[in-house]
Amino acid sequence: MKVVKYHIGADFGDVKYERIFGDPRHLVGTLAREARVAKPFGPGVYSKTTHGDLQVADRHDPKPPSKYPVDLETLRKCKQHIHRAPLPQDQGFRPHLLYCSFFFPHPPYDSNAKYMGRIDTSKIRIPVHRAPEDMHPADRYASTQKSQLSYVVHLRDGTPRIVNRSLSPKDDRQIIHTYYGMLAQVDDWVGDLLRALDQRADRDQWYVVYLSDHGEMAREHDQTRKATMYEGSVRVPLLIQGPGVKPQTTTHPSSLLDLVPTLLDLA
C-alpha cells in the first residue's frame, strides 16, 4: 500500500516544530502557500515543474533551492540532537523521536565524482523501451506527462546538463548512474548518524528506522521518479533495528500507515 502525497494543505505558519531552512518543507509553489513564482533558476535546479514552465518557490528566499545545503544542515542538526539528547537517568527524561529526512536522492539528479566513482557502471542495466504505440495506455500517459519535464543531470566534471526528451540510452545510463551516486551519499550520511548514536551510553535503547516515502522508476517503463503503481515507485526500504527486534525479513505487504502506531507501541 502506498501513502499518497498531494502537496496541498493549510498555511504552515502554525506548525509546532523547528524549521531549519524556511517555509515550508517542499518546493511546490502556489498549491501549498500561494507564494511568489520565481523566475527560472537555470541549470543545477529544477528548470520546470509539473505546475508549469516556471520554477515555483515556497519560501521568500532568492537562493536557488538546490543550492541551499539543506541535507548537510539536516545531518548537522540531527547529529547535534543525538549528542545532546538526555539520558534515561537524567531528570525529566521522556521518550523522544528524532525524524531525520533527507531530500536526496530526490530529483534533480545531482551527484559528484566521489560518489559516482563508487558505482560499478558495468552493472548498470539500461531498461528496454517500447514505442508509444506498443505501450499500455497508462504507461503511455505517464511517459507523456513526464516528458514535459526537464531532467537536470550533473556530469562527472560538475557541469550541469539539462536532459530533455527524447532520452537516449546514454541519457538513461547517466540518470541511473547519478541516482546511484546520490544513494551512496545518503549511505554516508546514515553512517554518520549511526556512528553518532554509537557514542551514546544508552545506544542499546534506541530504535533506528530506515525508510523512504517512495521509490524511483529509474527509466523503467520509460519513466523516472514516482507517480505510478509499479514496484519501482511503490516498493520502499523499511528496516527496523532496536531492543527486542529479531533479525528477520518478511514478504508480507506493509503500510507506512502502521509505522507511527508501531513506534508508539515500542516507546
TrEMBL record:
Pfam families to which the protein is assigned, alphabetical: Sulfatase
Keyword Cytoplasm (UniProt): no
GO CC, one annotated term: cytoplasm
The UniProt record lists the keyword Membrane: no
Keywords linked to the UniProt accession: Hydrolase, Metal-binding
Span of domain Sulfatase N-terminal: 90-267
An annotated Gene Ontology molecular function: sulfuric ester hydrolase activity
Record PANTHER family: IDURONATE 2-SULFATASE
Record-given protein name: Sulfatase N-terminal domain-containing protein
